[in-house]
Request: fold
Amino acid sequence: MWHNIWYALLGLFLAGYLALDGITLGTGIIGRRLARDDAERRTVAAATGPFFLGNEVWLVAAAGITLGGFPGLESGVISGVYPVIVCAVAALLVREAATQFRRRGSGERSLRRWDALVRFACLTLALMWGLLGGVLIGAIPVKDGHLPIDAAVLLQPVAILSALTAVAVFALHAAVFLAVRTEGSVAGRAAGLARRLAPAAAGLAALTALVAVADGTVRDGLLNPLPTALLFLAALAALLLAPRIIASAGWKALLVSGFAALSPVLLLGAAHFPQALVSSAGAGEDVSVAEAAADPSTLAVVGPVVLLVLPVLLAFQAMQWWAHRAKADDRSPAYF
Reply:
């Protein structure tokens, strides 16, 4: 029982990270396009600044659960997708440094260089998360619990399309966020960009799904095709709906786009459960959730601690969003 609870917690933290930090990633990608002058750039920074560091707590928690609760996943997946993980961590560090130092520069040229570095890091990070999801959605060549590093696995068409889809989805999610969190010209441009991005993101997602269905290896990894298909259709509908309800629904539109951003976690869980990894080498090489988990006695001791910490984290996030529920403008604290 404990391994399933831990697996659900891992999914919760990963989903929370994609939904929350997906806003920051998308803002880094599209922010310069929406902000035409210093006042508007300050508005964009003020909109995302209060949530910047708090969003990353979810990724840290997910990494901790993976390393402590699922050593089988750590040894089986992280070792096999090591280049993707290294690029993602490097991009994360570059984004942190560039975000912190962008306001310390003197002059427009310096600010543009830091903004370009932030945009590059956010784009790289979005691509890496999408690539990782595209690799793991299908059957992968796991043997004896380990995934060898293989460029053919990392660069398969489904993975590449998934990476491009992630960029479009995060950009759309950020555009919806800025449309409801800001006022004036920034909000108007963000809403317009969201409407233009929606068909592109949905089209890329649909193309990724079609290529995945045509790929026998990916089909072999879908142990539960019906719930996976229903979740995918719900995510597709969310991508198309979110921009249309910005004016009428406000923050509810952000919840809709947030569902689209976190849907890859739900899709992976629905596609594979009760397996954690599906092997293309045969059913005997599959790694179940129970096999990937740590010893039950370890999970039974540490699990309640995590369950106690989770409500505190949720309460802090709720308080943070409530405290900054007012729309941001160029007079709001920018933090960065």
